[in-house]
Amino acid sequence: MKKIFPIIALILLLSCDGGSFNNNNPYLPNYPVELQINMSLPQYSNLQYPSNHVVDYSQGVRGIVIFNTGSGFNAFDLACPNQTLSSCSTMSIEGINAICDCDSAEYSLFSGQSPGKQYRMKQYRVQINGNTLLVYN
Fold it and tell me: What is the distance between the alpha carbons of residues 26 and 106, in angstroms, rounded to a whole number?
């Protein structure tokens, strides 16, 4: 019994990643982010509906887009993940995609990925508390 407990504890420890994201990207710095979004306010109310988004330029590398997936929320940085920071490396949002102005690559706001690209969009954690979202890293 004494040998089984450490093995079980080790398995549980290794199987839990704490919801971490792999944001190791040589193009993007790691700035601290802590953003509160009150969806009861008019400027954020469209987040209450699936496939809608809001953008906040006050934090992150180039700003943050918060997207309602229908089953939760994703938050991504608007810096192009496969480009060095430049005048064209801020993404724009078109429907359910983020478009990098440097190379016209399209990234899904559901996954943060673009076909054929090495790095996905830099993702932030989202915690829901009633009508308030906390976006952080």
Answer: 20
At 124, the amino acid letter reads Y
Query: What band does 48 get if pLDDT is binned at 50, 70 and 90?
Result: very high
pLDDT in tens, 25-37: 999 999 999 999 9
Secondary structure class of 55 (helix, strand, coil): strand
The DSSP secondary structure of 56-86, one letter per residue, reads E-SSTTT-EEEEE-SSSEEEEE-B-TTS-SS
Residues paired with residue 55 on neighbouring β-strands, in sequence order: 65
What's the predicted TM-score (pTM) here?
0.84
How far CA 130 is from CA of 38, 40, 72, in Å, comes to: 9, 10, 13
Q: Which residues contact 15 (CB under 8 A, 6 or more apart)?
A: none
